[in-house]
Amino acid sequence: ASQKRSKVVGVAIKDRGASMPAGHMGDAYWFDSNTGEFMTSSYYHDKLPTWVEKFNEKKIVDSYLSQPWNTLYPIETYTASTVDDNPFEGKFSGKETPTFPYDLAELRKTNGEYGLIASTPFGNSMTLDFALAALEGEQMGMGDETDFLALSFSSPDYIGHRFGPQSKEVEDNYLRLDQDLERLLNYLDKTYGKDNYVVFLSADHAVAEIATHMVSENVPGGNLRTSAVVSELQNFIFDKYGAGKWIINSSNGQLFLNRELIREKELNQEALENEIALFLLKFDGIKDVYTGTAMRTSAFTKGRAELLQMGYNHKASGDILMILEPGWLTGGATGTSHGTGFTYDTNVPILFYGWNVSAGESSRYATITDIAPTLSMMLDIKLPNGATGQPILEITDKK
C-alpha cells in the first residue's frame, strides 16, 4: 500500500512465529538454539543487518540462563494454579520434580543449552529485547509511513506444553509477561508518544487441560495411542485387501493413505475411506471421522466439521480426519497440547489499544481473522488477498 516505504518486521523465538505474521514482503528474525543468536534466511537477507550482528554479539541469552527461575512473587500467592509438585506436569531433564526453583545454569547442560530459554519466561524477555533493537535498528515509526512490528512470544507455548495450564510455571510466566508488556508499552509511549501507535494482542490457539489430570478428577478424557490405532487399522486393511503399506503417514489427527497402492489394487478410494472411517469409530476417544472425499465434495456449515473444512487443503491434507472426544489428546502421561475444535482450544482474546481505539469491551463473537481487516480499515488500505474475516465494527466505526 505504501510502495514498500513501510517496514514490516517479524520477531519470535520460533521461525514460523516470526515469518508467517511478517508475510511475503516483510523481514523476519528468529532464535537459533544452536548458536544462541537471532537469525534469518536468505529469503530475506544474504547477510544479517549490522544491528542484528551487534545484538548477537552481546549474547544476552547467557545472562538470562545464568540466573535461577523462581517465582516472581511468593509462591503461596499463586492461587490461580494447582500444587507445584504433581504427577501430571512434565519435567526438565536432570530434575526429579516439576517444581521451583529451577537452576537454569545447570539445567541448560541437559536441556538443549541455549534452547532451554524458550521454556522459561526469560524467552519472552529476550524476544522483547530483540524487538526493541529492531525498532531502533530499522528506525521503525520514524518516517512518514506506518511501520508494522509482528512480535510473537513463543515461551507461553513451550511452558504450557510441558507443565499444563494449571501449573505454577504457567502462572508465573504470565505474571512476568505482564511486566514485559509494560516495558514494551512504556517504550512506545516514550519513543513515539501516546496515541501515536496501535497495538493488538491475541494468540494463535488456546490449550487443553492435561488429560491425565482430568481423569484423576473424574472428568471424561484420556490419551489416544495413535500408533496402536494405526497398527490395528493397517491389519484391518491388510486382512481385507492384501499386503502393502496402506497408511503412509499419520499426523495432526489425519491419516494419509497410499493412493498409488489403492490405484494398483483397483479399489474405489471413496469406498475405502468410508470403510476406514467406520472402523475408527470403534476406538474410545474418537468422536467423529470425516473423509477427504467428503471435505472436497460436501459443504459443512456448522460445528466441528465446518472447522475441519475451513482448514482443509485439497493438496496437502489427509484422506481421513479424526475428531477426538472432549478432554482427549494424543499425548503422553504428562504435559498437554492443543489442536482440537472445542472452545477450550479455540477461545482466545483479541485486544486493541492505542491510536483511534476507544475504551470498551464486547462479548460478541469475533475471530483472529478479523484482525487484518480491522487494521486495513484503520489504515485505509485494501484487505490482504487471503483475508476471510470482517472488520471489528466496535473499533472501525467509532463515533
Structure description:
By secondary structure, the protein is an alpha/beta fold. The chain folds into 2 domains: 8-211 and 345-355, Alkaline Phosphatase, subunit A (3-Layer(aba) Sandwich), CATH 3.40.720.10; 222-325, Gyrase A, domain 2 (2-Layer Sandwich). It is 37% helix and 13% strand. The protein contains 16 helices and 12 strands. The protein has helices spanning 15-22, 50-57, 60-65, 104-107, 122-137, 155-163, 168-192, 211-216, 226-241, 259-264, 269-280, 292-297, 303-310, 343-346, 371-379, 393-396, and strands at 8-12, 27-32, 37-39, 148-151, 198-201, 222-223, 247-251, 254-257, 286-291, 320-324, 328-329, 351-354. Strands 3-2-1-4 form a 4-stranded mixed beta sheet, with helices on both faces. β1, α1 (15-22) and β2 (27-32) form a beta-alpha-beta unit. The chain is globular. The mean pLDDT is 96.
Give the arrangement of secondary structure elements.
Layout: E1 8-12, H1 15-22, E2 27-32, E3 37-39, H2 50-57, H3 60-65, H4 104-107, H5 122-137, E4 148-151, H6 155-163, H7 168-192, E5 198-201, H8 211-216, E6 222-223, H9 226-241, E7 247-251, E8 254-257, H10 259-264, H11 269-280, E9 286-291, H12 292-297, H13 303-310, E10 320-324, E11 328-329, H14 343-346, E12 351-354, H15 371-379, H16 393-396
Parallel strand pairs: 1-2, 1-4, 6-11
Antiparallel strand pairs: 2-3, 5-12, 7-8, 8-10, 9-10
Helix pairs in contact: 2-5, 5-7, 6-7
